[in-house]
Amino acid sequence: MPHKFEGNWTVFETAGVNPPTEKDRMHLFINDAGVVDEAKSRHGQSRVRGNATANTLRLERLDNGNTRKFDGQLCLDVIINTNRQVMVITGKFVDIAKAKAQTEGVWVIVKP
Q1: Cα dihedral across residues 107, 41, 47, 96: positive or negative
Q2: Are 11 and 22 in contact (CB under 8 A)?
Q3: Which pLDDT value is given to residue 65?
Q4: What is the C-alpha separation between 60 and 109, in angstroms, rounded?
Q5: What's the rounded Cα separation, in Å, for the pair 44 and 57?
Q6: Residue 22: what pLDDT?
Q7: Counting C-beta atoms within 10 Å of the first and last residue's C-beta, which end of the chain has fewer, N or C?
Q8: Which residue from 2, 4, 7 is spatially nearest to 112, judged by alpha carbons?
Q9: pTM higher than 0.85 for the full model?
């Protein structure tokens, strides 16, 4: 059985004056032990690895020598109309390796 965080997410990243975008998508494959499947999980075209617990999500996006680390906490997990689950995770990100325009900031992911 997959982890509750598995699936398609809308991603918002912002640092300073850079506005968040709704165009980016993250698809996570997470097993019941909370391990993100790096071979299948993607953020745009980039590979994603990491771990999840019942209330936290720690990810690394791997992109051409750059690594962005995401550390998030589940803020909302509700069922709407008995068949639709809505979740919100928010936290901080930091870039490791090559120079990036955004070196650290806030991220929010929303499901569905």
Answers
A1: positive
A2: no
A3: 80
A4: 14
A5: 18
A6: 47
A7: N
A8: 7
A9: no
Lookup result for tokens 């992109």: 63
Beta strand ranges found along 1-112 (DSSP E): 7-14, 25-28, 35-36, 42-43, 46-52, 56-63, 66-80, 84-97, 104-111
Amino acid at 22: E
DSSP assignment letter at 112: -
Task: Return the closest-CA partner of residue 101 out of 18, 21, 9, 12.
Answer: 18
Residue type for position 61: R
Spatial CA neighbour of 59 closest among 86, 35, 87: 35
The reported pLDDT for the residue numbered 102 is: 59
* All residues at 6 or more sequence positions from 40 whose CB lies less than 8 Å from its CB, including other chains: 27, 29
